[in-house]
């Protein structure tokens, strides 16, 4: 059985996971292309080409390109990936990544990462060992409520469509309309927002960018038609124009004043890319953000009850005021009925 040891410089955790995925695909004997490997690893074809070159040149992998089948293969089927020299800290980091993804990502990714992790750990030298069962019982993650699982295959199809720049056709359930709609969308980007997955894409029906929850995609297929992401699309700028996932009008300066008691906790987290925190002499905190005023923002503010006051803009202050008045009326009516 042919094998070889890794030499410095060592690959990073992302490369190791890609190596394991490339190895798995090659062992299937289906002669995968660089494009297919890139879709499987959620990376670019150029990255795959670099990984294949490194596996061949640095680690002795007998990978060759079969021109008859148009894809890669092993010339020696007895080859195995070499032992991976990793520190306990590096192995712990991969273990924690698998645990985090299992908690936060409603996709097949966490099962695949767990499988890749098991393969990597099986290659470790004897001097590097961790009690993974003990780790699993002493470390846990609780992201809060997330959406149900997306339908099987949705995540894989979307990642492949994004990599290949292919338009998708889908039947999508709209919560706003409480009905299903047929759409064609150019998928630009996938994002995880507080444990839920969304696809950002150009909706040909709506003639503009929209966010689609993967769990609401009822049917999905990739079309032969391809697209190009406009040079004007700025992913970072687009993501800054929201608080949570809900989109609104133009961003405005939102100013919130938190009580001294609540301010202690508000200082501990970053709430938005545009935020500015100003501490007052009495211990209270001003949180300034440049975000659209939406009902999602209103709900977020109201969770802090009397410990927060909206100083601006007036639109958000009025939204909260009307909600508080409606709540007061409802609970007063309830007391009267009782």
Description:
The protein has 338 residues and is α+β, with helices and mostly antiparallel strands. The chain folds into three domains: 126 residues; 87 residues, SH3 type barrels; 82 residues, 2-Layer Sandwich (Alpha-Beta Plaits). It is built from eleven helices and eleven strands. Strand 1 and strand 2 form a beta hairpin. Helix 1 packs across helix 3, helix 2 packs across helix 3 and helix 4 runs antiparallel to helix 5. The termini are far apart.
Chart the SSEs and their pairings.
Blueprint: H1 13-27, H2 34-41, H3 45-57, E1 63-66, E2 71-74, H4 88-104, H5 109-122, H6 132-138, H7 154-164, E3 166-174, E4 179-193, E5 196-203, E6 208-213, E7 217-226, H8 235-240, E8 252-258, H9 260-266, E9 276-279, E10 285-291, H10 295-302, E11 308-312, H11 314-337
Antiparallel strand pairs: 1-2, 3-4, 3-7, 4-5, 5-6, 8-10, 8-11, 9-10
Helix pairs in contact: 1-3, 1-5, 2-3, 2-7, 4-5
């Amino acid at each position: 059985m042919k094998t070889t040891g890794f030499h410095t410089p060592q690959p990073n955790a992302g490369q190791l996971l890609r190596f394991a995925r490339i190895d798995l695909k090659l062992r299937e004997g289906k002669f995968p292309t660089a494009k297919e490997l890139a879709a499987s690893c959620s990376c670019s074809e150029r990255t795959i080409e670099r990984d294949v070159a490194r596996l061949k040149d640095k680690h002795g992998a007998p990978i060759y390109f079969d021109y008859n089948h148009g894809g890669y293969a092993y010339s020696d089927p007895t080859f195995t990936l070499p032992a991976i020299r990793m520190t306990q800290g590096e192995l712990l980091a991969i273990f924690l990544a698998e645990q985090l993804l299992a908690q936060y990502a409603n996709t097949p990714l966490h099962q695949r990462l767990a499988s890749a992790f098991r393969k990597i750990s099986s290659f470790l030298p004897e001097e590097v060992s961790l009690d993974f069962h003990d780790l699993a019982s002493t470390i846990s993650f609780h992201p809060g409520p997330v959406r149900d699982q997306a339908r099987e295959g949705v995540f894989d199809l979307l990642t492949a469509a994004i990599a290949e720049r292919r338009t998708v056709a889908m039947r999508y359930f709209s919560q706003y309309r409480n009905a299903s709609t047929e759409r064609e969308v150019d998928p630009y980007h996938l994002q995880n927002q507080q444990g839920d997955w969304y696809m950002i894409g150009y909706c040909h029906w709506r003639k503009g960018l929209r966010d689609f929850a993967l769990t609401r995609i009822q049917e999905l297929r990739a079309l032969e038609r391809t697209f190009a992401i406009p040079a004007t699309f700025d992913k970072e700028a687009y993501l800054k124009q929201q608080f949570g996932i809900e989109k609104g009008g133009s961003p405005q300066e939102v100013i919130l004043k938190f009580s001294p008691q609540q301010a202690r906790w508000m200082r501990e987290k970053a709430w938005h890319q545009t935020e500015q925190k100003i501490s007052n002499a009495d211990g209270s905190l001003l949180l300034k953000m440049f975000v659209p005023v939406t009902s999602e923002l209103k709900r977020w503010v109201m969770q802090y009850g009397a410990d927060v006051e909206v100083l601006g803009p007036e639109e958000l202050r009025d939204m909260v005021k009307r909600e508080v008045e409606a709540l007061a009326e409802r609970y007063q009516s309830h007391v009267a009925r009782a």
